[in-house]
Automatic annotation (TrEMBL):
Descriptive protein name: Aminomethyltransferase
Quaternary organization: The glycine cleavage system is composed of four proteins: P, T, L and H.
Enzyme Commission number(s) from the entry: 2.1.2.10
GO cellular component: glycine cleavage complex; mitochondrion
Length: 459
């Protein structure tokens, strides 16, 4: 497929002015710095040798100095060229869908072939140094001491006293003392303030040093779908392509795209329940690599937006922060107890441990929670966020936090919190939709089987 791709012209920007060195990387580039463009023809199967430009000089930089304007990811111009419809999301102007596919068609395309999602609005961090692991284990319930190099875990940042979820996150160990952490765009400012305060406290305790870096302007794309691995293999160099054969769900590796000097971090996983990858890309290479991937698999790969991403993630039983998770919710209430490591359950030592460890105990020991996150299948009209869940007597026993029609099941699905004791699969309840009661059944999640590429069982 890649060999058949048509040739195309590519504009390469080069600075006229000298001195695009350290000062530009700090954001101190002169405002009148000008560029000229030259065009030449190359095969679409091989992206150009990428020129390292300061992200601050790019028109589509991912942040803005004017607080009243939405940010743009490094792929904004590509979205425009491909017919995207934009909505505000997490402080960014993000594509919700594209002109070539409806949201349902895009959803189905992802389940049948593969889609490319721009997730560059997410916040990427690096924590490194002798105290990095201990610092992260203080603010999350994860057992990072047991996390092998280039393996990941879902986790949550926690409030000190309550154990409430500041944000959900994925933590990857890159080296013995280096971690890659991704947090949500909508929590950007809250998370930065939280982490800054935690770092200040950590340093004040004379703890082992930690360096925290926010990877501003770093690109992030998600390649998702049953043919995702084949698409990625054909655009990687030979050594990187072979590594995918044994890269399993929750693992990562550094890789190189054919014809470039761009070192990307490839993590196997995603938000759709399908096999797939999240790829962290240097700012100067994000648009070129995304276009190259799209051009190399025109019959199998399409861009997808937030609309399809939301229906896909709900079918997969994935939470969305600010809807299914918030500051008042603990991991136990959110059915995320599995992220709490065995040694953490035994020894604590993380924020909110007194609350969370008590919730993990049996009711006879004073433990348990009053509500739990569960899934629902609902008859009639779909239930949306805020819809009340009621019992036979009409008493409120819970609230829907996310809901939509499922393209795969052809049924209305939802996620929400329900009174403890009513949370067991098969329990029948009512959900009030537009003033009318609709029959609903508590259902296990994910709603459809996950298709992650997992390591062979050793049992």
């Amino acid at each position: 497929m890649a060999a058949k791709a048509a040739k195309r012209a590519v504009a390469v920007l080069r600075p006229i002015a000298n001195g695009m060195g350290v000062s530009c990387l700090r954001g101190d580039c002169p405002q009148n710095l000008r560029f000229f463009a030259r065009s030449f023809t190359i095969p679409a199967a091989r992206p150009r040798k990428l020129i390292r430009l300061s992200p601050f000089a790019r028109r589509h930089a991912s942040t803005t100095s004017e607080p009243d304007k939405l940010g743009r990811t490094g792929l904004y111009d590509l979205h425009v060229a491909r017919g995207a419809k934009f909505v505000p999301f997490g402080g960014y102007s993000m594509p919700v869908q594209y002109s070539d596919l409806s949201i349902i068609d895009s959803h189905n395309w992802t389940r049948e072939k593969a889609s490319l999602f721009d997730v560059g609005h997410m916040v990427q961090h690096e924590f490194s140094g002798p105290g990095a692991q201990a610092f992260l284990e203080r603010i999350t319930p994860s057992s990072l001491s047991a996390l092998p190099e280039h393996n990941s875990t879902l986790s949550t940042l926690l409030h000190r006293e309550t154990g409430g979820i500041v944000d959900d996150t994925v933590i990857t160990r890159l080296a013995d003392d280096k971690f890659y952490v991704v947090t949500n765009a909508g929590c950007r400012e809250k998370d930065k303030a939280y982490l800054a305060q935690e770092m200040e406290t950590w340093n004040g305790d004379n703890s082992p040093p930690v360096e925290w870096k926010v990877m501003e302007h770093q690109g992030l794309i998600a390649l998702q779908g049953p043919v995702a691995a084949g698409i990625l293999q054909q655009v990687l160099d030979d050594a990187s392509s072979k590594a995918l054969d044994t890269l399993y769900f929750g693992q990562s590796t550094y890789a190189t795209i054919k014809g470039t000097d761009a070192k990307v971090l490839v993590s196997r996983g995603g938000y759709t329940g399908e096999d797939g990858f999240e790829i962290s890309i240097p700012p100067y290479a994000t648009d070129a690599i995304a276009e190259y991937m799209l051009d190399s698999a025109k019959d199998e790969l399409r861009l997808a937006g937030l609309g399809a991403r939301d229906t896909l993630r709900l079918e997969a039983g994935m939470c969305l922060y600010g809807h299914d998770l918030d500051d008042s919710t603990t991991p136990v209430e959110a059915a995320l107890s599995w992220i709490i490591g065995k040694d953490r359950r035994a020894n604590g030592g993380f924020h909110g441990d007194s609350v969370i460890l008590q919730q993990l105990k049996k009711k006879s020991e004073g433990g348990g929670v009053s509500r739990r996150r569960v899934g629902f299948i609902i008859e009639g009209a779909p239930a949306r966020e805020g819809a009340e869940i009621v019992d036979e007597a009409g008493e409120k026993i819970g609230t829907i936090t996310s809901g939509c029609p499922s393209p795969a099941l052809k049924k209305n699905i939802a996620m929400g919190y329900i009174k403890d004791g009513m949370h067991k699969s098969g329990t029948e309840v009512d959900v009030v939709v537009r003033g009318k009661k609709r029959k609903a059944v508590v259902t296990k999640m994910p709603f459809i089987p996950s298709k992650y590429f997992k390591a062979p069982s050793t049992k």
